[in-house]
Specification:
Elements (H helix, E strand, L loop, with lengths): L1 E3 L2 E9 L4 E3 L11 H13 L1 E18 L4 E17 L10 E6 H7 L3 H16 L7
Antiparallel strand pairs: 1-2, 2-3, 2-6, 4-5
Length: 135
Amino acid sequence: MRRGPPGIEVALTARKGGTVWCLPKGLLEPDETPEQTALREVREETGLSGRLIEKLGEITYWYASKEEGARFHKTVHFYLMAYAGGDIRNHDFEVDEVRWFSGPEALAVLSYASEREIAQKALEVASRVEGDAWP
């Protein structure tokens, strides 16, 4: 997240031909903490670097892997991050697009209810965070 002229802005990723908007996320690599994973995945998927402010929560769900022909139980750890640098034009090839949205716009376009809940919490926490946390 960053503070811009319209207020707090959220970087979201588009997938599936731009039809699904979601928060950046990914899988833990060996010997990596959830915090390290969050920072790495945001950097890889969005082209942005961030500074961790606070853990927001977790989402747990099942997903099917067509390549492996199996179902996996996945837990995603979400963190509020302050924008520290980078450019969304440098996003990963795995995402179709990255775009900054105002808080209300982000809540309107996020495709999954569970991620809307995380984003709502992030906006509430971000509105209380003062000063040096934001560029």
